[in-house]
UniProtKB/TrEMBL annotation:
Protein name in the entry: ABC transporter domain-containing protein
One Gene Ontology MF term: ATP binding
Entry keyword Nucleotidyltransferase: no
Region (Disordered): 1-43
Listed Polar residues bias regions: 12-28
Family: Belongs to the ABC transporter superfamily. ABCG family. Eye pigment precursor importer (TC 3.A.1.204) subfamily.
Transmembrane segments: 477-497, 509-532, 585-613, 625-645, 701-719
Top-level taxonomy: Eukaryota, Viridiplantae, Streptophyta, Embryophyta, Bryophyta
Keywords: ATP-binding, Membrane, Nucleotide-binding, Transmembrane, Transmembrane helix, Transport
Subcellular location: Membrane
Start and end residues of each ABC transporter domain: 103-362
Keyword Ribosomal protein: no
Topology in membrane: Multi-pass membrane protein
Source organism of this protein record: Ceratodon purpureus
InterPro entries: AAA+_ATPase, ABC2_TM, ABC_transporter-like_ATP-bd, ABCG_transporters, P-loop_NTPase
Length: 726
């Protein structure tokens, strides 16, 4: 059955309604749909909606209770949503009720700046023109309110400002705002973030974690340690799984675009569960039913209604709900091009538009009807007299005027004008009559902002979560195969090399330089993806104050090190002995340690580039340029670098790594060419070293350690620059 298919039940119409042409056959009369007048007089539109709205309300009440008048048991089982309200009440019985928060907003406006484009023409190839910056107003004075226990639906066509309004009220946008929005009569402050839950339109979840792991880690991060033990936090996550009906998929991975996991509806419920773990007073949802089938969407909205009934304030955008979903909302804001054209009881919206002369001629989903109005589309809808006059055309040579459909802009202007004349003054007077909020409720939204968990707890949870999420990458057999075969190929090319002649020493120097550049590029081009790929998750979790940026950064950069060092170890173990490098324990372990440092330095550079640009293509391009510059100035290919480019080698980690590996493998006391007529020569005099001193190495090691710390500091400051913490 489709989402718009109502439950058939005869309607009772008064004789005056039938006489006025409001006669609707039982076959077309369906509860939950808006009933139009099927006959129309050019000068008068007679509509009878009182019974229709009452029946719609009856459907809503009966559907919520899981029973329907006149329906058989089979129909009940077909339409009833599998939500165990008694179990939910039992789960909430021992919980402290959330702080009731009333949201009010008056004349809310939002303006964004659009940068001007730079133009260029062939006529003036050396002249660039930049268009001036444009300011565009997205919201035009939106007013409304929503109380604890209520669900406010924000509707409108695409581009009408639904998500913008939700982000403003949810504290996700603080730029270009005028007007007033209050929470228990207190303006937005950062302490409110702990009492808010925000479910974004995109399901931002870790694909390789199971449903239970996702909610358990969220509980460990979000629930305050002062009030919950670790066992209680895990129990809260399990309760949320039961509350949202996720028991069957609790041990199923979330899934991603290339491998299967939970369904779309289950993924959306996991996102909701992620936010309601802390019993938020305010819950914001951005189009929670997008892309879901009617049955799944119905269950999601039922979950949202149950959340609101527990004393929470719920605001959600929704694009095009079915008639059953539409009647589940308590309040409705209808937006059109950033203007409000309706605010009030959702069930009374069709009656309001009928009162201003807009009525459908056919049976229609009320949500479709009001969205057509918001889009300026009056097909199959009566035209009010005011718009008939404005859209009358005169045909040449004829005395009869032609009635043309009004343009969308005319419909928009008419709807905005009528809203500002009839509904807006009433709503503003209601807001004034609400009175002042109690002091204890005001104090609840201005309490001191404190972290729920300690830095060390955040670090440990994030590290464990990161290892579980990325274990498939580091334990992938493809990476092992890749490193193993490269190691074998390198070992075969330099098989049992020696240092008997200068030519042989030169070959070994090529091997050392290859080791330096390979373990400089391999980790670099892996690390640059780290922060750009996790940006959405970082923004989401930091906006909810889940953790400090420093704890995330340390867990992300240190947590992967043990797994990152497995591959270099395999490589060195294979290559070192196959190529017959300096066979001593000190030389072997120093070589391994130097390769480790090289990996950590190149990772830090990748972190920095990725954090600065936060865009994979740009980061990859910049990393290629930087790495090639470092390789060319690393001391192997070019010895006589121009003076004005010499500074490049001093910031190249390849330069220091190559020198350090060389000094580990060779010493000035070694000799070569002993079998020639000229006799033995000291390695320190070999031209292949180009005058490099084979003693020391402390300066090179110190330079690499400075880069280990410096690149990571720059990456951390680049993440701070994102200002993801509002």
């Amino acid at each position: 059955m489709s989402s718009d298919a109502p439950i058939p039940q005869p309607l009772e119409h008064s004789s005056s309604q039938r006489g006025a042409g409001a006669n609707i056959s039982n076959a077309d009369a369906s509860e939950g749909e808006f009933r139009p007048a099927l006959s129309r007089d050019s000068s008068q539109h007679v509509i009878g909606h009182a019974g229709i709205l009452a029946n719609g309300d009856q459907v809503n009440r009966e559907y919520t209770n899981g029973t329907m008048n006149g329906a058989t048991d089979d129909r009940v089982s077909q339409h009833t949503v599998d939500i165990d309200t008694q179990d939910n009440n039992r789960l909430h019985r021992d919980r402290k009720p959330p702080l009731p928060i009333t949201v009010k907003f008056v004349d809310l406006r939002n303006t964004v700046k659009i940068e001007g484009k730079t133009t260029w023409s062939l006529k003036h190839p050396f002249k660039f023109r930049r268009q001036p910056e444009i300011q565009k107003e997205i919201l035009h004075g939106v007013t409304g309110s929503v109380m604890p226990g209520e669900t406010l639906a924000i509707m409108g066509p695409s581009g009408s400002g639904k998500t913008t309004l939700l982000n403003l009220l949810g504290g996700r946008n603080h730029h270009g705002i005028t007007g007033q929005s209050t929470y228990n009569d207190i303006p937005y402050n950062k302490a409110l973030k702990r009492r808010m839950g925000f479910v974004t339109q995109d399901d931002v979840l870790f694909a390789h974690l199971t449903v239970r792991e996702t909610l358990v880690y969220a509980a460990l991060l979000r629930l305050p340690t002062a009030s919950f033990t670790r066992a209680q936090k895990v129990a809260r996550a399990d309760e949320t799984i039961v509350e949202l009906g996720l028991e069957r998929c609790r041990d199923t991975v979330i899934g991603g675009p290339f491998f299967r996991g939970v369904s779309g509806g289950e993924r959306k419920r996991v996102c909701i569960g992620h936010e309601i773990l802390v019993d938020p007073s305010l819950l914001f949802l951005d189009e929670p039913t997008s892309g879901l089938d009617s049955t799944t969407a119905l269950r999601i909205i039922q979950v949202i209604r149950n959340i609101a009934k527990a004393g929470r304030t719920v605001l959600t955008t929704i694009h095009q709900p079915s008639s059953r979903l539409f009647y589940m909302f308590d309040k409705l804001i209808l937006l059109s091009q950033g203007n409000s054209i309706y605010f009030g009881n959702a069930k009374e919206a069709p009656a309001y538009f009928s009162s201003i002369g807009l009525t459908p001629f056919i049976a229609m989903n009320p949500a479709d009807f009001i969205l057509d109005l918001a889009s300026g589309n009056l097909n199959d809808i009566s035209i009010p007299p005011a718009l008939e006059k404005s859209s009358t055309m005169q045909i040449a040579g004829s005395d009869k005027p032609l009635l043309a459909a009004p343009s969308p802009s005319e419909v928009h202007s008419y709807l905005v004008q009528r809203f500002e004349q009839e509904l807006l003054p009433k709503e503003k007077s209601k807001l004034l009559s609400l009175g002042s909020t109690k002091e204890e409720l005001k104090l609840g939204v201005t309490a001191k902002r404190e972290w729920s968990t300690s830095w060390m707890d955040q670090f440990s949870v994030l590290m464990i979560r990161g290892l579980k999420e990325r274990r498939h990458e580091y334990l992938s057999y493809l990476r092992f195969v890749q490193v193993f075969f490269i190691s074998v190929i390198v070992g075969c090319l330099w098989w049992r090399s020696d240092r008997e002649t200068e030519a042989n020493v030169a070959d070994q120097m090529g091997l050392i330089f290859f080791i330096a550049i390979f373990w400089g590029m391999f980790p670099l081009f892996t690390a640059i993806f780290t922060f750009p790929q996790e940006r959405a998750m970082l923004n989401k979790e930091r906006a909810s104050d889940l953790y400090r940026l420093s704890s995330y950064f340390m867990a992300r950069t240190l947590g992967d090190l043990p797994l990152d060092l497995v591959m270099p170890t395999i490589f060195v173990l294979i290559v070192y002995f196959m190529t017959n490098l300096h066979l001593s324990a000190a030389a072997f372990f120093l070589t391994l340690l130097t390769v480790y440092i090289n990996v950590v330095v190149s990772q830090g550079l990748g972190f920095m580039i990725g954090a600065v640009l936060m865009e994979v293509k740009q980061a990859t391009t910049l990393a290629s340029i930087v790495m090639l510059s470092f390789i060319l100035t690393g001391g192997f290919f070019v010895q006589h670098i121009p003076v004005w480019m010499k500074w490049l080698k001093y910031i190249s980690f390849n330069y220091y790594n190559y020198r350090l590996l060389t000094k580990i493998q060779y010493s000035g006391s070694e000799q070569y060419d002993c079998n020639t007529s000229t006799g033995c020569k000291s390695l320190s005099t070999a031209s292949v070293f180009h005058g490099m001193s084979l003693a020391g190495g402390g300066i090179d090691a110190m330079a690499l350690l400075i880069m280990v710390v410096g690149y990571r500091f720059l990456a951390y400051f680049a993440l701070q620059r994102l200002n993801v913490r509002h």
